Amino acid sequence: MRVVSLVPSLTEAVARTLPGALVGATDWCTHPADLGVARVGGTKNPRTERVLALAPDLVIANEEENREPDLAALREAGVEVLVTEVRTVPQAFTELARVLAACGARAAPRWLEEAESVWSALPEPSYRTTAVVPIWRRPWMVLGRDTFAGDVLARLGVDHVYAAHAERYPRIPVEELRAAAPDVVILPDEPYRFTADDGPEAFPGLPCALVSGRHLTWYGPSLTEAPRRLAEALRAAHR
To answer: Domains along the chain?
Structure first.
């Protein structure tokens, strides 16, 4: 089986489970750190000619991260494309199992079983916290309705302010974000790389939690440690 992944989290999942199956991945596929496969461009602008040159048996993609015209071009060239849809934590587990089986896994890997166990054993939050979750700047964009990251946070007791917004990633002026007065502002390091010097200054007087985008938005082996790492970041914001 020769697999090309156009999704960083799926790249990590396949590489961890089926070493040698991946022959190509995007430039943004950073895990595992020693991944030695051909690079085929970005998630939004893959070089389809590079993908086809690798003669993959399967290309794995995501309905949110990848563009349909690129996937259609691969299908028209005769390549099988598996497209995932992940809006909730349970859906992530279902889709991961489907992807890994399609790539040749005969059984669920241990890391996937451990991740499911971690999430199923989460205690009911003793209190709820409100949050604003920017995912881009210039213009400011935040988590809206029906997102995987939103479901991750909700299961940890964090309700983001724009969860009922008509759009999944609405553009909201920063003045409005500040006026929402959330308990915490959550700043991930991807897709926009918020840092201590780029983000918190826009929200004076509000606690800001700098979190790993890999723990907030990736569905793969990082799911095992995501609840703990996110909880630690949220606690640190209130110190």
So the answer is: 3-119 (3.40.50.1980), 129-237 (3.40.50.1980)
